Amino acid sequence: QVANILLNGVKYESELNGSGETSEQPLSMKLLCSTVCQMPKALRNLCINHFLGWLSFEGMLLFYTDFMGEVVFQGNPKAPHNSDEYQKYNAGVTMGCWGMCIYAFSAAFYSAALEKLEERFSTRTLYFVAYLAFGLGTGLATLSRNIYVVLSLCATYGILFATLCTLPYSLLCDYYQSREVSPGPGRGEGLLRRPLTLCPPQFVGSQAEGTRRGMGVDISLLSCQYFLAQILVALAMGPLTAAVGSASGAMYFASLVSFLGCLFSSLCVTYESPATEELPPTEEQRPLLPRA
């Protein structure tokens, strides 16, 4: 989707330059900052939702093996190396690595099935289920001490990871449209089923006159939420786990943020091209909270 739209825009720009027309003003730091600060509301809500998803996921990922060693196996990493507590911690870390293996396999399988699921369920439903499954998985793992239950819940982590790597960018593609693009058959969600023609890709929700948002910048803004989440996790998780006394604080944090993202994705994220005049979004595609 992204490659087709970007190549479509490159062909359009080359045609403009060949005909002697000026496509748009050259890129500058001022223009770049203005593009970042004046994000359309639909893109801003999508970035916030993406940030919440990565924040919850990174909080779990960075402390999962410590959680298995300290909480599930009741080990102590600061104990003497020849003590039983230290051996329990090592066994828990090893078991946590197997849990990460289960998460990786579940992400691979869910990624393969996600395109088929998009044909049966709406994007809002898939978003909601991914955040809800991860919130329940991390929350129940914190409450349980059964090794098999904790390991089986790792499958829910792959669902959120596959969702974060696909659906936000699919929605961003839907936010871009051109006047010559006609929706193909099907539900109309995603551009995989829409024929692309030689015309300029434009962000529908942008109201700035005489400007056109670049899709490369918007993809970067969406991807930056991953690194912002890592920075916040690195700053906040140390004091949080110290206050709680174990790595279970990181799992509680991941579960809470995931449920928050679950609500935000249902109420605030736009699931169809915003501000379209010809085809207003249906009830399933527009955000549940009214716009200001």
UniProtKB/TrEMBL annotation:
InterPro entries: MFS_trans_sf
Subcellular location: Membrane
Keywords for this protein: Membrane, Sugar transport, Transmembrane, Transmembrane helix, Transport
Broad class of where this protein is predominantly found: membrane
UniProt GO cellular component terms: membrane
Residues that span the membrane, as ranges: 51-73, 93-113, 125-143, 149-172, 219-238, 250-271
Source organism phylogeny: Eukaryota, Metazoa, Chordata, Craniata, Vertebrata
A molecular-function term among this protein's GO annotations: sucrose:proton symporter activity
Protein name: Proton-associated sugar transporter A
Bilayer topology: Multi-pass membrane protein
